[in-house]
Coatomer subunit delta (Cystoisospora suis), 249 residues
Amino acid sequence: PAVVVNPLVEPVHVHIEEKVKATLQAEGGIDEVDVQGTFFVTVTDPNKGGLAAFRISPEDKRFKTKVHPNINRGSYTNNILELRDSTRAYTPNTPAAILKWRLQTKDEDYCPLSISCWPSIGNGGVTLTIEVEATDATRVLEDVHFSFTCPSHVSHQIVRVEGGEVQYDGISLHWRLPQMSANGGDTSTATLEFFAATDVNTVLPFSVEMYSTTNLCELEVEECFHMEKKEPIVYAVSRRTDYMLTVRA
């Protein structure tokens, strides 16, 4: 069947995606950060973009990279991503993962939030005070979401909220901050204090999820062109980094 082409959409779209998982310690410090990234290519117009090639910035040596078998490895050493076989063009409207990278580290700089956790036992339960600070001025964190286990049979009380909103769904307490950034202003820090009539092992560990539209791996698409004709191809680039943090006792 003929591919439906929208003339208002660029014939080639690059999406650079990263997943960051980290385990933090409640008293400070970090166990490990795991960063996994993927370079996706989606061709919407096969006539223009089916044989798209990309000139990219030099490899970020902090990360271990893997190139898809369909990509020309010789060209990649010269910072060109192009297909190994020109008879096997990109499948239209299907994201193709052509490059992956990974980093495992204990470097706290890869975690964009500093989270201080102060549990206090007493009055038949635990009072948990969480102080959060955005530490990376190069990225804005969106939809910052803390989730604390708090079963329905456990009575709880919100003592203090500075920033964001707290909701309870009968299973967990959810603290949501629409945006955090280290660029100053009132979105750089936030504090939550709550009491739960349970032990500390119920509310710890807790999870934090958020995303950013900037990546950790320094990878720029400098040019997109037809691998045979060498003519430039109009393209778009989008980026997203999803963070999944666990804070443990």
Observations:
- The mean pLDDT is 95.
